[in-house]
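Subject: mismatched residue count in predicted assembly?

I count 218 residues in my input, but I want to confirm that the predicted structure covers every chain. Input:
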Amino acid sequence: MNVILLGAPGSGKGTQAKQLVTKYGFPQISTGDILRKAVTDGTPIGKEAQKFMKAGELVPDDVILGVIEERLKEDDCKVGAIFDGFPRTLQQAYGLESLLKRIGSALDLCVSLEVPDDKVVTRLSARRGCSECGQDYNMISNPPPADGRCVKCSGEIIQRTDDQEDTIRNRLAVYRRQTKPLQDYYSGRGLLSIVDADGSPEDIFTKVCSVLDDHDKE
Ligand code: AMP
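Triage response: the counts match. Full output below for your records.
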């Protein structure tokens, strides 16, 4: 199954995607994670993406589609994928369609996670993560240990540079302008399911799973 998780930054796409991977066995394809690794590794893609990411702007479509094209060639994607943070523009949505077609596959669902803006700003300002293993933390709901080291791997716990309030507001504006129109696109194709994501991760996961399971029964 190929599923897109759509939603504003901080709507919980990454959290839900990780749980879906465990339950259904599809790989998570997070363009944000791929780009952050490219920035850390200092690759040409990372160097190009860095300035856009720092400002909370979108990385150009051709760069993103190149990244997805390479990722879809990997064997684990043969069973499908959970797309987290991709597509974010109509051009990316068209690109995804033709890339999937090329490998004899197609999109099954677009699940849009809906959270009010003020909740998103609170969630993202409190978000922290391990710089080594990626373990998620949150200063309100899941604070890291006092020594600032990850419980899993002792790595350093950090705040993303784009999780500062100014950048968060810009990312939200970018989402509304460039990404939210994808709802209409996928709704028109009969692929959209909207999930109220203003709740606990467990409750949201139950709702997302029922959308996937209902689709699977069709
Ligand atoms: P995320 O981790 O999904 O919030 O993404 C972090 C940043 O990476 C975004 O603010 C963008 O600068 C960039 N990015 C991630 N995915 C995409 C995408 N599909 N299209 C363009 N830029 C992206």
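Residues 9, 31-32, 35, 52-53, 56-59, 64, 85-86, 88, 92, 162, 171 surround adenosine monophosphate (CB under 6 Å). Marking this ticket as 'not a bug'.
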